[in-house]
Amino acid sequence: MTDRGASARSLPDDRPAHPDPILALNRMGSFDWDLEKGLFHMDAQALEVFDLRPEEYDGRVESLGVRVPRAEGSHLDALVARAMKDGSENYGTYFRLRRRDGSLRWTHTQGYIRRDAAGRPCRIVGIVRDATAELGEIAERRDQAARHAARRRRTDVVRTATAALAHARTVDDVIDVLRDTDGLTRLGATSLVMGLVEAGRIRLVADGPQNSFVPGTRVTRIDEPYPMSEAVRTLSPRYIESPEEFAERYPVLWPHLAGLRITSAAYLPLIAQARPIGAMGLLYSDRRGFSPEDRDILVALGSSIAQSLQRAMLYEREMDLAAGLQQAMLPRTIPSVPGCDVAVRYRAAGVGGSLGRGIGGDWYDLIPLPGSRVGAVIGDVQGHDTHAAAVMGQLRIVLRAYAAEGHTPATVMARASVFLDELDTDRFATCLYAEADLATGVVQVVRAGHIDPLVRHADGTCRRVPVEGGLPLGLSAEFGCLTYPVGTLELDPGCTLLLCTDGLIEQPGTDLGEGTRALAEAVATGPEDVGHLADLLIDTAGQRGGDDDMALLLLRRRAPEAARTGGRLRQHVAPGDPEALTEARRMVRTAVRAWGAADQGDEIELVADELITNALMHTEGSAVVTVRALTGPGQKLRVEVEDSSSALPRRRDAGDSGVSGRGLLLVETLADGWGVEARGGGKCVWSEFALVRRD
Q1: Cα–Cα distance between 66 and 77 in angstroms, integer?
Q2: Which helix (H) or strand (E) holds 643?
Q3: Which of 638, 642, 631 minimizes the C-alpha distance to 604?
Q4: What is the DSSP letter of 473?
Q5: Which among 210, 287, 281 is positioned nearest to 243, based on CA atoms?
Q6: 15-39, pLDDT tens digit by residue?
Q7: What is the pLDDT of residues 619-662, one digit of tens each?
Q8: For residue 509, which phi and psi values (nearest 5 degrees)?
Q9: Among 156, 474, 599, 632, whose Cα sits 20 to 30 Å from the Cα of 246?
Q10: HSE, side-chain direction, 13 A CA sphere, residue 124
């Protein structure tokens, strides 16, 4: 079918790839091609398809060249030759005809090859039909499918961005999602700008790519002639569909963007709860104009981003409030206490699924007490919200107040539990209170549902110290258990006491016992300096993850400055036992002479006798008398009298004729120092004397 009469113009190579197998019943013609004689017979309908009159066609296939362009004829010849050669029974294809008026139209042909007994092709019969409408429908379906695919891609971008924005907690997280290559860049945007409305102005919070910042637009007024300002002011998008429109509408802005080869832009208001919170601009370099579908997608995208931004801004405000409240409730500074080194650390829980997860009820405190004593507190209020922090702050204050009043550790804990119960809150708290005498190293520990303390010894070994405990604070009053047992441990010079909350030892998939052992190993191998050790422990726990707060307090008793016991004598004195009282006096006299202070023996013995007598008379119980020789910066002798009463001694005015009330005045006059310490269920009244040795 070579082109003999038609113009050999070049034709577009847009032949349909796959012929439609469904034949149209309308306007279909037939042909019968005798290959041996070269005759190509067509019926009237086939002639009409070729736009030929009967008198114009002589029945030979070469005569069809007047309607079949050269390229189409070559295509048909090659197709038929290949089908006859490879033994095919039929062939089919689309080809173009040039009509009488010179226009091209699509035609479809289907031929069936007949062969002789030897298998040689001898005849082809088939049909031809006008395929213009059919291919138009196919093209329309293809275009429609392409439009649907493009719409799905855009919808997928919005869906993907919305899913990613659901996990964004801060404004920076939202911006990172929008800048991500799997986010808005799928829409083909070249550049992104975003601003937030603050006090009648728009503050730019994101722009990109790099070096695309427009000078003077970091903070702009809403009434300025910028597209983002217009979007905020009118609460409607601004679409710029060409560079010419951009340059005409925004002559101040356009010169700074011309280098980015921007061809169109969309500026969307970010509206939440019917008020603008910001605006976003998407700038394109490969498109002009926006279809209605494009505009609908962009509006939906702006709505999703606005909701995420509002959540992020609310979250950041809540976090700022939480962090401020947490810092206000925790001690601002830790006092310096002679005789010990202290380090404290607090780390909030990782951000979880609800607002306020960055705050909790964990706390620590250090309370200087009279004499050489210090109180250390660690606690954890149930919950991770501002309510937990508020309860924590109140508990910290009352514990400090009760301890400063001179109550015993057990009494401090019992009163704190009653206080929490009377707050009428649904929260309870665990707590551990340790009162350490830095001169003697004696530490009294009271535990209310909290984990046990750890002690690191001077040789580097670390162990958990089991302490009998009571119910958590707030529950003891409810269950009528207001008695807290007191445990005692010795903290030698160079030893470190570790108090912490369970967030420091909890590990995913393990119990608290394993976590405690792992913590003890970390303490044993950690640095000696308490500050460096605290940093190591809190950082290690933070890397491990977890969803609980962490509070840590380390107290290391100093070796050089702290007084050390050079010797100790102890005597138990029961009421109504004159022999035990005599033995106690003899023990004091012997200690004074043995330690080279015979010249001070009368004063020391008189003070000791007064303290013992007061204990036996006013407590109606026994007393334990201890005499210690303290070495350090100046040698001292210390007399301690322990009893089972928590009542504190009071100085009284004896009057002119009174025989009672002068005891404490006498102690205060003769001793170099005296004081009262809580000891378990009772107290210890002590006095110290600076020793003056004489040869």
Answers
A1: 15
A2: strand 636-643
A3: 638
A4: B
A5: 287
A6: 554 444 444 445 689 999 999 888 9
A7: 777 888 888 887 666 678 888 888 877 677 766 655 554 455 56
A8: 85, 5
A9: 156
A10: 25
